[in-house]
Amino acid sequence: MLMSRKMGDVGAVRPHYRAGMVPPDALDRLILEQLQIDATVAAREIGDAIGLSAAAVQRRIKRMRTDGVIRRIVAEIDPRTVERPITCVVSVELEHEGSEQIDELTTALAAHADVQQIYYVTGSADLILTVLMPDMEAYDTFTRRFFLDDPNVRSFTTHVALDRIKTGTTVGVGPPPHSS
């Protein structure tokens, strides 16, 4: 299945719980912990570990996908193995922070395959990006296209990672919050 990017995926504020959504309970959280370790593990194995049938685990996974708790299931690739050994963390400061300008730039950046993450942030920078590059020449071309040639980009600062110590997309799901 091919991934498609939708305009609403970039910078959209998502509520914690949508109408009709069932918040994850303790068993859902155990399932989520297992899936974040290995998304290919069989429902039967998860069920055996947490005391549910495989069918019950599959129903819960399906519900959490429908509810948007599980956004997608992907393979995590070592960027060095696909000739992307350089990780740049880039802060970008804009001249104008209008929603139109931010949406225009973030949409263009999100469409670029080497942009791994984009955050719209508070503080001195407006955007923080994680970019994976094959070499510094490619990064120079990238910065010219997206930052130097954009009159709305006031400045940008690049931090080149010396080592990728911890990366990933896991979310601490922990126990459910206690109700008062």
Strand content: 15-25%
Write the CATH fold name of the largest domain.
Answer: Alpha-Beta Plaits
CATH architecture of the largest domain: 2-Layer Sandwich
Largest β-sheet summary: 4 strands, antiparallel
CATH class of the largest domain: Alpha Beta
Topology at a glance:
Blueprint: H1 26-37, H2 43-50, H3 54-67, E1 86-94, H4 99-110, E2 115-120, E3 127-133, H5 136-148, E4 153-160
Antiparallel strand pairs: 1-3, 1-4, 2-3
Helix pairs in contact: 2-3
Overview of this structure, please?
This protein folds into 2 domains: 23-76, Winged helix-like DNA-binding domain superfamily/Winged helix DNA-binding domain (Arc Repressor Mutant, subunit A), CATH 1.10.10; 79-160, Lrp/AsnC effector binding domain/regulation of amino acid metabolism (RAM) domain (Alpha-Beta Plaits, 2-Layer Sandwich). The protein is 33% helix and 17% strand. The protein has 5 helices and 4 strands. It is elongated.
